[in-house]
Structures are given as C-alpha cells and as structure tokens.
Amino acid sequence: MIQQQRQRIEQAVTEMIDDMDKNHLRKIQVDMHRCAAKCCEDSDASVETVQRCVERCSKPFNRAQNYVHHELGEFQDRLQRCVMQCNDDIKVKMSPSPSEDEVAKHTDQFERCAVKCVDKHVGLLPTMMKTMKSVLAKGPEHIPQMQNLVFVYCLFGIPSGWHRRTTSEMHSCAVRCCDDTRKQPRMDNVQSCIDECATPLLKAQDYMQHELGQFQVRLQRCVMQCNDDVRSLIPNNTNEADMARFRNQFERCTIQCVDKHIDIIPNMMRAMKSVLSSGPNAMRHA
C-alpha cells in the first residue's frame, strides 16, 4: 500500500511539473537560449563580455526554476512531516514487546494514516499549482528569490572562434527543443533533446580542458626536474653564498622550462583547432 501511495504522489507531482514546464518554464527557457545565442554571435565581444551576457540571459530562467524547485521541496517536506507524524503516533501506542497481531494492527493504522496524508497533499496540488502559475505569469522579476537553493554552473574552456560558434549552435538547437509547440513533448524528452544539443560543446570543452591540463602537467614535471637536479648538487653544510648560486641555477632552469613550453603553445593550439574543426567525433583523449 505504501508503494502505491508513493507512486500516486510521484505521478501527481510529475504531471504538475510537466504542465508547469510546457506552459511556463519552457517559454522562459526559449527566451534564455535565444538571448544566449545572440551573446555568442557577437564576434567583436570579449570572452568576459560574452560570459556576462550569457549569465544575464540565464537569470530569469534560473530564478523561475529555483522558485519551482523550492515550492516542490516545501511540498515534499510537508508530506514527509505528515507521514512522520503518523509514524510517531503509532510508535507511542505500541507496547515494548508487541505481538504479531499488534504489529499488524498498528501497521494497518499507520498505512491508513499515510494514505490520509497523501490524500490531503494531492488535494493541495491544484491550489499550489494555481499559485505557482500566478507567480510565474507575472514574470521572472516578480518571482521571490530562494536563498536555500544553490545551482552551480560549470563553465569550461574559452568561448571564442569555433568554440563560440558551437555555443551559439547549442543554444539555437535548445531553442528548437523547447519551442516544439506542435508535438508538445514531455519534459524529460525536451531535456534529452537539450542534452543532445549540448554534446558537441561539452566534448569540445572536455577535450580542451584535457589538453590544457596535460600542458600544465608537462610544465610542472619540467620544473620539478629542475628542482631535483639542483637538489642533487647541493652538498651538506652548504653556506649561504653557495645556496644563492644553487637558487640561481634553479631559477634559470625554471625559466628555460617556461620558455620551452611557451614555444610549444602555437603548435598545441594548431593541433587543437584542427581537432575541433574536425568535429566532436575526432575529440579523443586518454
């Protein structure tokens, strides 16, 4: 019975979320992606300017999404408290060593109480949904900010050149996913579509991060080798003058490492651009 009630509440909440997504959130999401695509299309803008522009575009949708998540979280908390109260009430009635019949009786009482909780909270959903729709319909600027939710967005790579075009294409693709008013797909299908749109960009970002990480590792190994080589030359009881000489050797070696790796950067960038221009399937790393 408990499993049936869980499925019942999950279905009711899922239907509400789908309705909220199709009629409110998706429209805001379309505007966000269109706005972000325009940011990325500005070839004269700097990386920081584009990023700030994209972040501004995201604020209305993030605010709306935070609000919906907060309200659903509050709803789930109230339902859980109701069920926990049922559990506490039954525990008080049970004897220290209950018989099987007593356990069965109290289990039945708990389940009936839990069903009442579900009935009550399912009954609250229409009013809750009406309130949420009213808030969302007023526009993102009227949505209260929820301080207890934190959404972390990881931004990889540098959105310039090919990468910026790919970012723009991702947002344009996502707009088409969200703007499918003819088919009215379910929210999970829309999200799958958006995820697919993001795949080329994510692969590019992952590839760039890996290559830059490998570059840093090689530079660090070179500097560490300088450190090991110099330390092997330092005898015991070295005076200050000799230590200064060894430090100078280490610094010269480190500068050589940096110079060497700076010289590598143009070739590395050409190789990365070649891979990126070949498309996501060409992006492989260990």
Structure overview:
The chain has 286 residues and is mainly alpha-helical. It folds into two domains: 1-154, no CATH class; 207-278. It is built from six helices and no strands. Helix 5 (187-233) packs antiparallel against helix 6. The longest helix has 47 residues, at 47-93.
Number of domain units: 2
Question: What percent of residues adopt helix (DSSP H or I)?
Answer: over 70%
Shape descriptor: flat
- Give me the count of strands: 0
Order of helices and strands: HHHHHH
Class by helix and strand content?
mainly alpha
Distance between the termini: 50 Å
The chain-level mean pLDDT equals 78
Number of helices in the DSSP assignment: 6
Radius of gyration: 29 Å
How much of the polypeptide forms β-strand, as a percent range?
under 5%
Biggest pleated sheet: none
Low-confidence stretches: 147-159
Protein name: Protein FAM136A
Family: Belongs to the FAM136 family.
InterPro entries: DUF842_euk (IPR008560)
Task: Considering the chains and any ligands shown, give keywords for the structure.
single chain; about 290 residues; mainly alpha; 2 domains
Provide a short characterization of the protein structure.
This is Protein FAM136A. The protein has 286 residues and is an all-alpha fold. Helices cover 79% and strands 0% of the residues.
